[in-house]
Amino acid sequence: MKVKTNGIEINYEVEGNGPWITLSHSLACNLHMWDEQMELLTKHFKVLRFDTRGHGQSTAPEGDYTLEQLADDVHGLFAHLGITATHWVGLSMGGMIGQTYALKYPGVFKSLVLADTTSRRPPNAAQMWGERMEIAQAKGMAGVLDSTLARWFTAPYIQARPDIMKRIGDDILNTPVAGFCGACAAIAKVDTLDRLKEIKCPVFITVGDQDHGTPPDMARAIHANLPGSSLAIIESAAHISNIEQSEVFNKNLINFLDNVK
Description:
Layout: E1 2-5, E2 8-15, E3 20-24, H1 35-41, E4 46-50, H2 67-81, E5 86-91, H3 93-104, E6 109-115, H4 125-139, H5 142-152, H6 155-160, H7 162-173, H8 177-187, E7 203-208, H9 216-224, E8 230-234, H10 241-244, H11 246-260
């Protein structure tokens, strides 16, 4: 399904019954990044998944995006669906959108799960993301495919699961270059750390112990700045921990949600 909001079309799916829960995916993925969570979550929740601006079947405008813009996209989607309260689960970019939304629209989130994400850009962010954008613009998404998979998953998992590498690799290749670059520009400027104390809903933070993109120290910084939050570090997982260690991720997720819904 699609809805026009904030000047673009957002593609989304709704499944299950119960309280609303919204899932927000990583850069260069789409709503199917959450497939491993759906069987569990649809038993307890009405699950909203969507393709972020520039990804999947949503519109991919040219130019830089901002996290505030991506949060406003979500706000328009919520308005279309009549959502005034929802749990939020965001991984990587999805976690950054979640933080930005929670600060801009307080009171909507019943809880917030921040997976493999950060709240402050590293000093070299502009250069690092700029280089990735240049490669994608010059070579297409194939130019960033192998390096992305190597950051997202541990070497043993890459070797053991060629089926997953094909599936996620296709999602990367099918991400529009304009969408990838636009979102890279947004990610490169994330800076919510000093305001996290303003977020009042329950927060669960999780990260793979081998996540080099948003390392455990970044998760610990978020945890330290969110009084009352909880933190779980998942062993033998890199950046896309909800897929690489889906069983552990799902167990931790539902344990958290059972205590807040």
